[in-house]
Amino acid sequence: MESGCELLDRIAADIGGTALQVSVQLSEPIRIQVVGRAGVGRSAVADVLLRAGFGTVTESSAVDAPGLADPDLDGDVVVYVLSGAPRTPDVEALQRAPHGTTVALVNKADLQPEWASAMRVAAETEAETGVRALPIVGAQSRPEAPDGQDDVIAAVAAAERVARARRCRAALATLAEAAARGPDRDVLEGYLRSDEAVRLASQAVDAFGDGAADRRRLALLRRRWRVRTSTDVR
Ligand SMILES: Nc1nc2c(ncn2[C@@H]2O[C@H](COP(=O)(O)OP(=O)(O)O)[C@@H](O)[C@H]2O)c(=O)[nH]1
Ligand SMILES: [Mg+2]
Fold first, then answer.
1. Which SUPFAM superfamilies does the record match to this protein (predicted)?
2. Which ligand has the minimum distance to the alpha carbon of residue 42?
3. Domains in the chain, start-ordered, CATH in brackets?
């Protein structure tokens, strides 16, 4: 597959080394990992994402399965599926999930008394974990009822853009380091000044932006959550 960076691909073919390694990394598909406890609807959600046209969607083994280690959350985008309020293993997994590229889905929203209840569970999940959370009906039995799928698809697409932006940022940093270090300095510096590298850099800015916004949002959510839980009567 091609990286979409023709100039880099040409340089990589010519000098190999770091340029080749980076062009290979940039050409790899963004992997969407669907994860959660057994029976929450990972397969149903993976199906929704595949039908929406996301390329590389994989369903991981179940979180909190008896006698088995939890799967690594190593997808470029992690879609964490719940079927109601998160339990302790879910909260723990969500807290170590990659920032800005994880989306939590409260699946089986059709089993809640009403759509607003599913929205509330999602908002509480988001407050508790700092991960963006949305309700969804993955396996639709009543086609006319709300299913939240369009919003979920948009959120996963946004996470995919952040993942791509981070990949661009890492690629540029690696090339800059290689330029500073070594024998291919002139070629690599030439590349870093090219229109193509400037385009990569502008894609990478997305990751910076989202990162900062995300940290602010997370801090705010955590504060709100602390205020709420400290005023709850228990
Ligand atoms: N009511 C309802 N059932 C669902 C939904 N999504 C999945 N299911 C059902 O939940 C069960 C487990 O779903 P599956 O996708 O196989 O879960 P997995 O084990 O996490 O892959 C199946 O019987 C599905 O039909 C949903 O949104 N609403
Ligand atoms: Mg399954």
1. P-loop containing nucleoside triphosphate hydrolases
2. 1
3. 6-28+159-208 (no CATH), 31-156 (3.40.50.300)
